[in-house]
Amino acid sequence: MNRSSQAKLIRIFRKIHRISGLNLVIFILVIAISGILLGWKKNSNGYILPPTQKGTTTEVSNWLSFDSLKTIACQTMFDSVGPALPVKINKIDARPDKGVVKFVFDGHYKGIQLDAATGEVLQVATRRSDLIENIHDGSVLDKAFGTGSGIIKIIYTSIMGVSLVAFSITGLWIWYGPKKIKNRKRARKK
Prior knowledge:
The protein is an alpha+beta fold and 190 residues long. 57% of the residues lie in helices and 13% in strands. Keywords: Membrane, Transmembrane, Transmembrane helix.
């Protein structure tokens, strides 16, 4: 590739880099900040992600049935948070090494941790990490617009992923291209 073609390519890449950056800067900042927060979630002293409590036994054979634990979790959600929030369970997270079962609910960011053997309520807490994750991956937009299919999340993550690849390639070329041109000039002078 001759020098003028290389310079033209660098100008095109700079333009792509600049225009894409200006159009996506807010989304890039949202992804970066939410990614930082997600990286720190377990080290936030319980603010982003409530710490996992400890149950009375790690022996799974001594645990109550999941059906019994689910009933306790749903009743606890209804009693402690009120009937305004739905009690539909999104996820059940069993931690055998801690003797705990966590219940995460749909439609809000409250979670309940139960002692798996006794059913005792160990914690009712807000799981801010779930909200941050939904912001990070764009699924918060699907919730806001009521699309059950996750199509906005797919479009959002695809655009942002392709943009990151484009920024990497154009940024590398913007940095490397002038060095290559300068090295060719030096080689010709010798």
